[in-house]
Amino acid sequence: MKLSQKSAVKSHRVMLFGPPKSGKTELAGKIALDPKFNLLVFDLENGSDTLLKLPAECHDRIEVISIPDTRGFPIAIETMLKVIKGGPVDICELHGKVSCSLCKSKNLPSTRVELNSLGLDTIVIVDSITQLTNSAIAHITKAQPDDYKMEYDDWANLGKLMDTFLSYVQQAPFNIICISHETEVKMEDGKEKLVPTAGTRNFSRNSAKYFDEVVYCEVKNKKHVAASSTTYANNVLTGSRTGNVLESKPGEASLVSIFLNSAATPGVFGAVNTPAPPPVSQATPAAKAAVDLVALAASMKAK
Description:
Blueprint (H helix, E strand, L loop, with lengths): L12 E5 L6 H6 L8 E6 L12 H4 L2 E5 L8 H9 L5 E4 L8 H5 L4 E4 L8 E6 L1 H12 L11 H19 L4 E6 L1 E5 L5 E5 L4 H5 L7 E8 L2 E5 L11 E2 L15 H5 L24 H18 L1
Parallel strand pairs: 1-7, 1-10, 2-3, 2-6, 6-7
Antiparallel strand pairs: 4-5, 8-9, 10-11, 10-12
Helix pairs in contact: 3-5, 5-6
């Protein structure tokens, strides 16, 4: 398929990362201020209380699925690996477990989720990848004593689990935001950079490849700042395939523009492209004639 015939992917995958209390969850939650969008939040670390600060009219557009992950009960990695595949699953409200036999036997409530059936007006939020990493580590070492030090094979298994999850994110037909914290790593060019936490340091260094947008949150001059352009800071990994420049509006950043259309005009915050013209095979006779005229003019100019 030629690039001219390929349409932009309509769903978006966003990584939102930064230090604790830098406004990550709130920035994602503020998408619900726009009545065109609904949020499906997988709360792995009890951070959804932050969303209660949003206006009451937003609350009905936000569904929260709590997954009470702990060192002794590392359920998040098990549940999210089943959920992210996109098929229908039932998650019990008590344990955050898929197809929980205990809750089924007691007729306790559960939530049906099928990510692949979601429309583009719904945005999935996973909060957070840091906790998902901790859950994967606890799952790998659950048979070991508390003072156990992970070995090479354990770290390799961690990489496999995180790659499995993020590879489904990378190909997701639905909109998704993954929230994480920051890790400082040495890049291939030898420079130190802040990158999203996602497993080991080596794996975290390349975790941005699974996402279209990598957004960094921090507090500057008593304002919450979100940055997305590749030129934001030399020591922070950020980037946007849709050209959004969130840092152009400090204190007023919004992720809504990312999801409004299939792509934003490069370098312009909040602007969107007009739809691409249809292939000639699908065009009207008038459109075909216009294309033919352009081609004829080009050939005459070449002569």
